[in-house]
Each structure stands twice: as structure tokens, then as C-alpha cells.
Amino acid sequence: MTNEKPIADERAYRPAQPVVRKIDKADLRDALARGLADFNAMPTHLVFLCLIYPIVTLVAARTAAGYEVLPLVFPLFAGYTLIGPLVAIGMYELSRRREKGLDISRRHLFDVLRSPAIDAIVVLGIVLMGIYSAWLFAAQTIYELYFGSAVPASIAEFARQVFTTPSGWALIIAGCGVGFLFAVVVFTLSVLSFPLLLDRDVGVITAVTTSVRAVLANPTTMAMWGFIVVGALVIGSLPFFVGLAVVLPVLGHSTWHLYRKVVKS
Questions:
Q1: pTM of the full predicted structure?
Q2: What is the dihedral of CA 64, 69, 73, 79, to 10 degrees?
Q3: How far apart are CA 50 and CA 41, in angstroms?
Q4: Looking at residue 88, what is its pLDDT?
Q5: Angle of helix 244-262 relative to helix 45-65, nearest 10 degrees?
Q6: Residues 6+ apart with CB under 8 A from 240
Q7: How does pLDDT run across 85-114, given as a tens digit for each residue?
Q8: Structural domain boundaries of the chain?
């Protein structure tokens, strides 16, 4: 029988404002290596396949039933990065447990539901979902600005409009620009917020401000991390989203180790 303490007892009571360190590229490489090691020790790809494919199937079926949702397919999946920190919270918990030498079976993915920080996690999760909804609204508005409210006649016609017309290229530029702003905001607010909430007895405001301070203290390195995350998600999405079942948990575990490097224990 393993000797485990409740999550409430494991969370350390430290000063209200955590100390933020400077990090460099070597720290990013080490965080990724440690994240991959965590995934190899605690593979959760089947869990993520069960989460990813019902969503993919639902969107595909809805698109086939009526092309009115076609303009939102890319924003739906691209905006997934906005709620990625919330989706990865189970990975943070598993990495935290492995770090402490506790049991790391997959059922502990859901231990966050018993965490004393669950209220703060829910609040921050609602904020991210709100931003995600705002992004979808913005994407729809941008599309209608260039193409009106007409429903695409087919997938081929929609692709022709987007990739071969001046309005389509303007749509791509405007959409990517606005999406980048949403991503920067979410990344800055949440890159370290959820790991900090799991690890310490702090509130939402302290978690968010610590994440913001970490990004401001390491602008270049954290920007590199953001591009690593985006690049990994794009690569993982290419083979029919199968790769995301590995990419998502590895990035989640790696983010926990990034948190350990940035926020002083």
C-alpha cells in the first residue's frame, strides 16, 4: 500500500507572490526532454484519442450535413490552442505525482477534481472558454466582412474562394492576425497559471499575474516556447489528428517542467 497524502496536504503554503526566474533555450530543451520522459513513463495517448476523435467526427458530420459551418472549421480547431492549458491539466497532475514519487496510474488524471484549487481552476477555465468563444465570434465576423453571410456551395468552392481570390487572401491575413493576438493573450495569462494553482495555495489573480510576470521576464524564451507549441500542434494535426494523441500529453508534461524552471520553489 502506497503512502500518499491528500492533495490538500501536498500543496505548499508559500508567499503570495512566487519568485520568477530567467530561463534560456537550454531550459526549453530540458523541459521537452523531461516531458517526453513523463509521457513514456505514463502513456495517455489512448485517453487523448478518445477525446479528440469524437470532436473531429462531430465537426465532420456537421460539415457534411450543411456547409454553413464550413467557415468555422479552421477557427474551431485552430482555437483549440486557446483552451489547451485547460485540457492539459491532467498531465500537470501526473507529472506532479511522478515528481513526488506517488502512484502515476491514469486514473489520477482526474485527481484535479479533488484539488483544493478546483474552484480557481474552474474560474480560469471559464475565462479561457470565454476567450475561445470570442475568437469564434471574431472569426465569423471576419469571414462575413469579406464574403457576407452566403453559405459556401461546396468544400471545393469554399477552398477556391479562400485560396484564389483577393478577398480570400485578405481573410487569411486578417484571421491569422486576429488569431495571433488571441493566442498571445491566452498564452501570457495561462502558460503557468494552471500548474501554479495545482502546486501552491494561491488564487486566480496571483496565478495569472505570475504567468504574466514570467512571460515579461523571459519574452524571447517564452515566445520560442509558444512557437514550439504551435509547431508541434500543427505537425500533430497533419496525419488526421492522430499525432495530437502524443503531442498534447507531451506538451502538457513539458509545461509542468517549464513551470518548475521558471517559478522558484
A1: 0.84
A2: -150
A3: 20
A4: 85
A5: 120
A6: 56
A7: 888 888 899 999 999 998 888 777 778 888
A8: 35-54+67-103+114-262
